[in-house]
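Researcher: I'm preparing a figure for a lab meeting and need a structural model of a single chain. I don't have an experimental structure, so a prediction will have to do for now. The sequence is pasted below. Please return the structure as tokens so I can convert it later.
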Amino acid sequence: MLNRRTFLKNAAVTAAAAPFISTEEILNPVPRHIGLQLWSVREDMKKDPKATIEAVAKMGYREVEPFGFNEGKLFGLSYDEFTKLLKDNGLTMPSTHSMMTSKNYDAGKNDIDDDTKKVIDNGAKYGLKYLIVPYMADEDRKKMDTMVKLYGAAGKYAKKAGVRLAYHNHEFEYATKAPDGRRIIEWLLQETDPAELAMQMDIYWVAFANHNPLDWFRLYPGRWELCHAKDVAKTEKRESVEVGDGSVDFKGIFKKSAQAGLKHYVVELENYVTTPLEGVKRARTNLLKMF
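Model: Understood. Here is the structure written out token by token.
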């Protein structure tokens, strides 16, 4: 059995062989998959995607999560151009956000429409692990029976294509009840097959709705394969701020990552104390201290 002295010696040798890995990181490893939701730097991406992606890579990010994948282009670039830009900067795109509505579901065939199939096929083509539904339209929240059928059909198609369908929450899923009295989040968790729909917990919005993420980990273990990490400001408005600068106990939450099923941790920022790029850099630095 390795004693601590031998372990430290081996760790130091490994760190010397890989100068970009510190002994601290070896002794206290952080999750492999830490990414950035590009909504956080959307204006920068709109102005100069190349320079922004370069800046994000220099911060230490190795994964990004775009949005608007169903629009045919990403930030004015073709999918080929965008994935090349990522590759040139040592970045990957394991997940992306892509909108779906009840209009994408054919009740007669119990199937998704061709446009949605094309989006999923493109996701498989470009190596996505997760295609994430980012939002549920207001009118669709009254059609939960249809929505869970939509996600089920899309999840089945995605699974065959080698992509995992997931859903990203906001506050309303925890605060709004469907016609039968259940919360929308309960509909999603209880009426969909875990093999066909993963969850991306937005920790900020769960806390904003005055719920404890740990309660949902305990009630539905293994469902929460991804998360958005942003903090709740200690202000009256409770706006989102960089991880570690607010009131959320991320250390306590991440201690239960195995129970939750968490594999991908995605930084997101919607309000800025400084600039978007400075904010996501600080958020990443703070997030690394939470494990």
